[in-house]
């Protein structure tokens, strides 16, 4: 940090911004001096990378330690207990850990799929049609983004309790289907990707509105919808508050809630710590794998498009 | 054969049909709960006699009583102050780092940029609960590598899960999880700046630092506003990190943050009326803060356009 400030502020002192009094800059600068400047950003970014990878590296190593090794050996030295830890995790409450993982996958895949579908039709309608109440509807939907989840989750729980639907898969699943942020992204993407002329041409050919949407608009919106799906998938997988409030039967827990209960019990029985660590390690794998696979498809320009408008 | 009139009717009705699922879901899972929370917040339970038997407990109008109680509640106030302190660390540090990393990624001579970018963005893929669990262990003296090193060096070992350091410990989890995402948002809008702008500045003899300060940062101001806005909302709603760390320390109470207090009152203490009033208050503060912020940001950009 300080080298950055020193190195860059020294020449800055001599030149006044906006005037052409300085020496003409060297083009195609390949001198050793100029190449070395890359050191500051490179080192800064690598420091950031180490900071971000550190806990992940730690959990990978810690999951290989037996309970005894966890408290006695140097934390970045691999242990010998990974197979035993896996076996213990498998044995814990008849493998309830895998039920949690399965539940998370179910909530996230189904929830994100449905949520993307709802976002797609709503975003398309808001982008393509001019109709009464369009802006009002859109603003009301957007206000949903600002609502703190707990403000919604507590009365959602109480209302679902009135119809005996709490502590069910549906209670975790349904409240997450409508995502105001998803609708917002889908609207931006639809207005960028679907030209009105194409929709008009579809009408000229006598296609119905639904047909135009499914056959013409949807394929055009697909790259953007992948992003919406991924956002929703991560949001549902990571959600803690809603299942925490809705569920009491731990057979229906997603992995986030399962790990938290394990950790809570672990505070009294430290032997469970190795289970929590191994469990946390395994819970990170699917999302990191997904993340590494999709990050090349992830259309991040969508995000900046959202910023500009 | 469809007549032109039928078609135009279809076109008029279509958006309402397309928006139907969203409208139903909105009514059921957003509007109704909000309305119910408002209704609850204005009521209380009136207990007749010993409160036994049917009809002994009934809901009566309470007016603003729950709200005045919430204002007088020192636990809620302390929770709000704690979150304020927490946010005062998280927001500037996280966005400062995100901007710094984005600017560094955007320099010409940087090496290993794809690797660093991916590594810094990676925590976004780690669920907040798992992140808090991992850091929780890294804060525990018996298993943490930091304490191991401090011990070997004979240095004092601070308790990261108590007092002032607890704020740093909690903030660090949020910074770790959020920096990469914000970095990507800022970096993407940096990439959208046309190269000619820099060329002109370079011809004028501007240094990289001047280009960053006078051109890049002003041009990504809209995405900074957006990231700031989302960070404030996320900060006000902090819930899972302190809840996860709670089993590891005695210093995180069940009312550490306002949302935890709402949860405690609703499900621990069973006073859903008080909890509803507190929830409504938190929502109001969030709305006022975010709209106030958006207005301030808007008027600033307008002033700058006018200049």
From TrEMBL, chain A:
SUPFAM superfamilies noted in UniProt: MetI-like
Keywords: Cell membrane, Membrane, Transmembrane, Transmembrane helix, Transport
PROSITE patterns on file: ABC_TM1
InterPro entries linked to this entry: MetI-like, MetI-like_sf
Region (Disordered): 1-27
Subcellular location: Cell membrane
Transcription keyword on record: no
Entry similarity comment: Belongs to the binding-protein-dependent transport system permease family.
PANTHER family on file: ABC TRANSPORTER PERMEASE PROTEIN MG189-RELATED, ABC TRANSPORTER PERMEASE PROTEIN MG189-RELATED-RELATED
UniProt name for this protein: Carbohydrate ABC transporter permease
UniProtKB/TrEMBL annotation, chain B:
Residue ranges crossing the lipid bilayer per the database entry: 16-39, 83-106, 118-140, 166-187, 219-239, 272-294
Domain ABC transmembrane type-1: 80-293
Subcellular location: Cell membrane
Entry annotated with the keyword Transport: yes
Alphabetical list of PROSITE patterns matching this protein: ABC_TM1
Residues of the signal peptide: none
Principal location: membrane
A Pfam family it matches: BPD_transp_1
The keyword Thylakoid is assigned to this record: no
Keyword vocabulary terms for this entry: Cell membrane, Membrane, Transmembrane, Transmembrane helix, Transport
Topology with respect to the bilayer: Multi-pass membrane protein
Family: Belongs to the binding-protein-dependent transport system permease family.
Annotated protein name in UniProt: Sugar ABC transporter permease
